[in-house]
Amino acid sequence: MMSMISAHPALSRTMQGEDMLQADEVVAMLRLHELGWGAKRLSKEFGCARNTVRRYLREGGASPFKKPVRRTAFDGLDDWLRERFFRHDGNADVIRQELASEHGIIIGLRSVELRVREWRRELKAQKRATVRFETPPGRQLQIDFGQTRVWIGDERIRVNVFVATLSYSRRIHIRASLREGQTDWFEGMEGAFLRFGGVPGEVLLDNAKALVEHHDAVSREVRFNARLWAFARYWGFMPRACAPYRARTKGKDERGVGYVKKNAIAGRRFESWASFEAHLDRWIREVADQRDHGTTGEPPIERFAGEVDALRPLSGRAPFGQLRDLVRKVQADCAIDLDTNSYSVPWRLIGESVQVIVLAGRVIVRHAGHVVADHALCQGRRQRIVDRTHFVGVAGMEGLVRSVPVETTPAALLRPLAEYEAVVGGGW
Question: pLDDT at position 347, please?
């Protein structure tokens, strides 16, 4: 019996439940069909289902198996999924949440992970394949904040560490603070300018909310905070934001922050905040500036000798925190309000908007490009500061005006104001 079954290949195939035929069998089936054999007779002869015979006849021979195309929840979202995958550094759970909030697609985390896994190798390679970009002397300063905990006395407190790194020489500046606000960013940069004795051509920064209002990951359109623009114009540098979700484009300073946290701070205790700051300053001079840098092979302080002349001189400019550039409307009492105090302006400007500059202990009011008022900055509150000449032409004020000397702009103020106008007026 076994010999009879094995002797007939069609019968053997039927016993094993197989419907697939060899190529030569399919050719034979087509020839027999041309001779008039029907599907029923062919199915018995070759030991396969009638539908299988009909499929071979319909397709004119054997054809590869076609996997049915199935619709999924991700149809039409390939570009969106790829962009979000790289934006969120491969975090599939965040993508799952945004699928629900933006597209109304409720799906399991495992399904998302399976869908995006084809890009994980590319993401891993992208993180490692960062091209080193070297800048010429004086071109660029990279800045960033890092957080760590430091023992100050008997308390272990959270400290924000600002680190600025000159891209060419690798010299660094450190400023520790308890906050990470816009003022801390500005004071950190000004401290770096002071330490290095000049200002670079551009400052590369992260996409901190205190500095950058919007940075599109696809179009790379950047909208900086208005006060950052004013700060940059005042000091004369161009702000640049590193690519979103690609902090490695600011690699020199990213590594600098880690270097400071591990080498200058980790494992140390300080009696007071002042001793902590003194230690950081000493560590920069004695350690960071003197070490042989792993990339350049030179001590940063020696390499800096070829960079210092490329920095823009400070020219004795006052810190930006001492300059305020405001817009005020002249009130009906011929004055503008500033920090609860009021300062007089010529009465003819009632209802007009004027520019108010607070600099070097003075309050300067400008209108249509001209200085129309100049007062000493009042340190009190709710005071009224009046220049009688602002009321000339107002009935009943002439006699009072003649009895009061006219206040003039001090010569010492003209130089910093002129410098400010040169920076702001020049634009970009």
Answer: 93
